[in-house]
UniProtKB/TrEMBL annotation:
This is DNA-3-methyladenine glycosylase I. Keywords: Metal-binding, Zinc. PANTHER family: DNA GLYCOSYLASE SUPERFAMILY PROTEIN (PTHR31116:SF4), OS04G0501200 PROTEIN (PTHR31116). Residues 67-79 have a biased composition (Polar residues). Zn(2+) binds at C159, H174, H330, C334. It holds the Pfam family Adenine_glyco. GO terms for biological process: base-excision repair. It comes from Centaurea solstitialis.
Amino acid sequence: MCSLKSKLIQPTRLNANTTPATTMVSDINGRPVLQPATSNRSVLARCSLKKNPSLPKSPPSTLAPNAKTNKNPSTISINPNSLVKYSSAAIVDAPGSIAAERRVQVAAIQVQRKMRIAHYGRSKSAKYDSCNKLFDHNSSLINSTTTPTTTGLREEKRCSFITPTSDPIYVEYHDEEWGVPVHDDKLLFELLVLTGAQVGSDWTSVLRKRQQFREAFSEFEAEIISKFTDKKITSISSCYGIEVGLIRGVVDNSTCILKIKQAFGSFDKYIWGFVNHKPIITRYKPNQKMPVRTSKSEAISKDMVRRGFRQVGPTVIHSFMQAAGLTNDHLITCPRHLQCRRHPPSSNH
């Protein structure tokens, strides 16, 4: 019998006559490993070799004086006391660093976001009031402490038909008369005539000729207008440039008003009786389309036509109701909406 040593050494001395079917024991890294026999000795040579990585030798000056090396050249232990320590706070908080600049940008973005939230009313917290001191219109930095809801902003929230290009006389009419409850018979008659005259035209043109209408129709005295003759009607048309058909309609309406005064006591009691002597308060929003006629205006128009009135269609009567304050059609965003509701009713003169 052969010894173990001979068995270990024998496979390493194989010759070409060895058959592939036989097995052998190879000595790899000092350990016996059972492997199949092969004629390719290069494969065995590559398997038996193992590269031991080694670190390149560094010059002695690069190591710290307290560095200790182990017997194994692949591992080197260095004394941590020999290294220079840096504070993370010194790196992050250093002025001019990227982190410091980023913190400034984030702080500015947060303040802008708080200002937008406070401006659009999503937050009523008082801690956002100080944001108004930080930003202005140009450089986002202001020194005033005014709130976003200032008087100037309210002026821009008039009714939608008032635009920056509107005529001043039209804006004045909206701010002082339109929607105010009227209880004077002569003024009610005047507004009824003006609303009929603006059919096919516009309110601005009618308001410019308002004084001419007052002179032509004798300050809207129904008793005087009802006595106009054909000669007077023709003279008024040539002097003031008013259509003859419109003048004849005003004369007929003055006669109807005299009959209403005999039946109801005044034109004011008759017309305000349709709304129970209280103005209709609507709550139209800017994104809503305001109607040009309502069921109430249709009912009033039907009754006035039955009594002999002319030029009193549902659209004209709805415009007359808005002008005389029978209905408050100011948008809820318009400051005149609340002012007309609180306006005391005018007495009949």
